[in-house]
UniProtKB/TrEMBL annotation:
<dbReference type="GO" id="GO:0016226">
    <property type="term" value="P:iron-sulfur cluster assembly"/>
</dbReference>
<dbReference type="InterPro" id="IPR017703">
    <property type="entry name" value="YgfZ/GCV_T_CS"/>
</dbReference>
<dbReference type="InterPro" id="IPR027266">
    <property type="entry name" value="TrmE/GcvT-like"/>
</dbReference>
<protein>
    <submittedName>
        <fullName>Folate-binding protein</fullName>
    </submittedName>
</protein>
<keyword id="KW-0809">Transit peptide</keyword>
<dbReference type="InterPro" id="IPR045179">
    <property type="entry name" value="YgfZ/GcvT"/>
</dbReference>
Amino acid sequence: MTDTTPGTWLADRALLRVSGEGVRDFLQGLVTQDVLGLSPEAPRWSGLLTAQGKALFDFILWDDGDAVLIDCEAAQREALARRLSLYRLRRPVTIEAIEGSVHWSRTSGHGFPDPRLGTLGYRWLSDGRGDEATDWLEHRLRLGVTEGVAELGSDKTLWLECNARELNGVRFDKGCFIGQENTARMHYRSKVNRRLVVAPLGEAGPRTRTSYPEIGLMVEHRRVEDLGDAFIPDWLAAALS
């Protein structure tokens, strides 16, 4: 009999563990989300930005008791660890790559709702891998959700242009973080002139971040008055209105 159970393992994700005295205060002053309020049942999508408020890395934060787990791009794990280490100074904080895997399912039964958007499905961490989730990429993109350096860029896109406000990737009441001044100014002035959007595959141009010919989609950085054939899901439509 053929096993029709869909795979859940997100092969392009990896884990960092950040631990030590004052670890939450350490991260609180760096990333865009509120780390002090992190709980086991509610992971949070967050970013590490430049001083100008542009995305360097995006990731999901998980409570791990006295430590924090960072669910990040596997290809960027080492670079993210190095970047976090720059800010450690003399703090007794340990930043280490650990074994473990990230899983996803469209339906409940395991894990917790994706912190960005409920319709993305459910996410959890485990020690085992299992079969790879082959439909995650298209599912995510057709909901208009972008992630990772290939799509967001590194030091290319302002965090709010990555739709971070709409996808629960920033807290404006948590105090300072790197890039907070420009990010907050854009928020309070409601001045987000460009957006990362997903569109049907077309000819690549200067606005194109990356293309996925195998699923007929592309990610572009477009001005809000020129979104053209981009997908405008309900969550983005509400923001644009």
